Amino acid sequence: MNPFARKSVSELQGNAETGGLTRTVGLFALICFGVGSTVGAGIFVLTGTVAAQHSGPAVALSFLIASLVCLFAGLCYAELAAMMPVAGSAYSYSHASMGEAAAWMVGWCLALEYLFSGALVAIGWSGYVQSVLHDIGFGFPALFAQAPFELSTARHLVATGSILNLPAVLVTLLCTALLLRGTEFSARINNIIVVAKIGAMLLVVATGFAFVDHANWTPFVPGNTGVFGHFGWSGVMQGAGVLFFAYVGFDAVTTLAQEVKDPQRTLPRALLASVGVTTTLYVLVGLVITGLVSYRLLDVPDPVYVALNAAGPGLAWTKVIVGFVAIAGLVSVLLVTLLGQVRIFYAMGRDGLLPAAFTRVRARSHIPHIGTLVTGTIASIAAGLLPLSLLGELISMGTLFAFVMVALSVIVLRRREPDVARPFRVPLYPWTPLLSITACLYLMWTLPQDTWIRLFLWLAIGGAVYLLYGLQRGRDRADGPAG
Fold this sequence. Notes:
Layout: H1 9-15, H2 27-38, H3 41-55, H4 59-83, H5 90-97, H6 100-135, E1 149-151, E2 157-159, H7 166-179, H8 183-208, H9 232-243, H10 249-255, H11 263-292, H12 303-310, H13 316-350, H14 369-385, H15 388-416, H16 431-446, H17 449-479
Antiparallel strand pairs: 1-2
Helix pairs in contact: 2-8, 2-10, 2-11, 2-13, 3-9, 3-11, 4-9, 4-11, 4-15, 4-16, 5-6, 5-15, 6-7, 6-13, 6-14, 6-15, 6-17, 7-13, 7-14, 8-11, 8-13, 9-16, 10-11, 10-13, 12-13, 13-14, 15-16, 15-17
């Protein structure tokens, strides 16, 4: 009933061993979940948009800057995840450090992050599928090829003439069906796809550098157009803010904490390994595709495919491989983002802030099946109706807000519960969490002003839902068990 009421760390540690979720995920599978969630949307979708609108060839620098911010946040996540290996990620950590109302707002932003990132990935998948179909002689009906609206250069929503992005809707529903088979089954599928995806990206890097036209890298940082964020160093920084979405994978790792074997050791290792692998691949691939084609031509849903196509017959064979692996690889990203959102809903349902149906776990597959169905349905609608560029900025904003709250949680819990065992401790405390907060806030500041307006609108809606529903559930819990 008190919006500032906190859950103790010991209570959350007790939640970690209850609720029907089983510990079946090992270190390799968890790293694959992290890499599977990150290596895909960043390379296959947003690289071209950021290069064409913000950074130019310096998109590689934008990736590197975003990865450094991500490393600071990852170290904070590692301390909290090892201390509280429970479903819910930043939502649960905020509940322990700052109370129910703060946790609700973090959970609300995580919904923005995961649901919309799943939709963005599905849109990218649709773009690659349509490109492959076009290359083999099959056209896709224009009415069902993209969302009914897109974001114009003046940042207004304009009609496209289409009705629905049907391929994006269908792949989202397919991934929802796979998740209903259970976490262990999804992990096996994800492991296979991730290994193939990394192999394909290394193939592109190894062969693509031989076809790079160095003129495409000049100037490496294009001059600013006079507008903040449109190239120049402000564009590099704004590009880093947009690309921060691409590192959401390690956050997905923490949402699985309640299903991980030996979580105190496995979670920190998987978090840091995921960041290292994805950063290396992002920087290398960003360099290659901006070297193969002018960055001005990359503002498309399938930039890697466009870059390989521009290289001519010498890379035609890699184009076919990458086209199909991109299709499979984006499926793995979509799987993990949907899975992460389901676990957020599970934790919020466990605490009574969402209906108890979100905590119902199917005995056979050990997954929250109601939450999976709801998540898949909402994400498929968003994928079919919303434009790509708008989603990328909103996701980055929601993600960065959640990361600020995680770093704050480290500081608050060090003061409030200093004696709790911490299997992993953030190095150089308190400077690391303070650097994480500062860097995340700066990247949030670089994002376009209308993205801030949409964030405040989203938070206002979340606050209204909490006041009308969450607090009432709190009164119900005070009177008796949540139903």
